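call fold target=DUF6968 family protein
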Amino acid sequence: MNVIAERSLVLVENGTGQRRPVTVRLGQPYWIEEGIEAACPVLIEGMLSGASDIYGMDLLDAVECAVRFVNSYLKDSSEGSLCWPSGESYESEGE
């Protein structure tokens, strides 16, 4: 995956308080069918196994949908609380 954006976070697990790194990566969007449908690869290392393609109407829409997916997934995670590597609480867009 050709990474176009990356974010590093820390997940503090519920119950144990154990900290583990989480890295969000967005890949370069690409056309599934030119002018019809595009996709943007998303990888959330430390929480999801493997990359997923998020689809949109064009390249920009695919990236926007991928960012919404990431924000929603991180916000709704029941694994624990997220923070920046500095320790400051992480709040995804829309909170």
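return ok
Helices lie at 59-76. The chain has a mean pLDDT of 94.
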